[in-house]
Amino acid sequence: MKKRWYHYLWIWSLLYFSLGFFNILFAWLGLISFALPLVMAIGFGNKLFCNRYCDRGQTLRALGQLGFSRRRDMPAWMKSQAFRYGFMVFFFAMFGNVLYSTWLVYSGAGSLQAVVTLLWTWQLPWQWTYSEMVNPWTAQFAFGLYSLMLTSEVIALLTMLVYRPRSWCVYCPMGTLTQIVCKAKATKK
């Protein structure tokens, strides 16, 4: 198969997590991963971003080609609409929690938590990545978004290891949301 430029978008994932490891403010770049799929779904009415341009999907594809995947079928419950929608709601509730904790720091009702929370459970000290040259709420949002992005990356990698390389794409919250947008656009036509 001929390699195309978008097959190298896995570099964006590597760059994102590397930069966030050294300076948490780079975590704001994660908003690109939230916005682009929606912009493309609204603009084009399809899942082109998910199918071709998603950096995470390209990372999983590349790792699968290197033999890191067992290439087993996913259980039917993971492919079900109930699981996909439920995971999307849970994921966006966690994003809402990021926004809420950012608001608390912004309003002075909370203090900056310079930690990255992995899998919504384990708090990893990450204070070396924060410079006090920015408002604490700016850093709080970055810590929260980086936590969310790192957690979803770990889940995606675990799913890839056990099942097919792009199994994450089946229940990805952004993929599910873009699918809803695409269906809504198709219904309007």
Give a summary of the structure in a few sentences.
With 189 residues, the protein is mostly helical.
Q: From the alpha-carbon coordinates, what is the Rg to the nearest angstrom?
A: 17 Å
- List the total number of helices: 9
- Overall average residue pLDDT: 96
Most strands sheet: 2 strands, antiparallel
Tally of individual domains = 1
How helix-rich are the residues, as a percent range? 55-70%
Major β-sheet strand ordering: 1-2
Name the shape in a single word. globular
Helix-and-strand structural type: mainly alpha
Low-pLDDT runs of 5+ residues are none
Protein name: 4Fe-4S binding protein
Keywords: Membrane, Transmembrane, Transmembrane helix
InterPro entries: 4Fe4S_Fe-S-bd
Transmembrane segments: 12-36, 82-100, 143-163
List its traits.
transmembrane helix; mainly alpha; 189 residues; membrane; 4Fe4S_Fe-S-bd; two-stranded antiparallel sheet; transmembrane; 4Fe-4S binding protein
Present the secondary structure layout:
Blueprint: H1 10-22, H2 30-44, H3 48-53, H4 55-65, H5 76-79, H6 81-107, E1 115-118, E2 122-125, H7 136-162, H8 168-171, H9 173-188
Helix pairs in contact: 1-4, 2-9, 4-7, 6-7, 6-9
Transmembrane segments: 12-36, 82-100, 143-163
Keywords: Membrane, Transmembrane, Transmembrane helix
Protein name: 4Fe-4S binding protein
Notes on the structure:
- This protein starts with 9 loop residues before the first helix and ends with a helix.
- It has a two-stranded antiparallel sheet.
- By secondary structure, it is mainly alpha-helical.
- It has one domain (5-188).
- The chain has helices at residues 10-22, 30-44, 48-53, 55-65, 76-79, 81-107, 136-162, 168-171, 173-188, and strands at residues 115-118, 122-125.
- The protein contains 9 helices and 2 strands; from the N terminus they run H-H-H-H-H-H-E-E-H-H-H.
- The model has no long low-confidence stretch (mean pLDDT 96).
- Helix 1 crosses helix 4 and helix 6 (81-107) packs antiparallel against helix 7.
- The radius of gyration is 17 Å and the shape is globular.
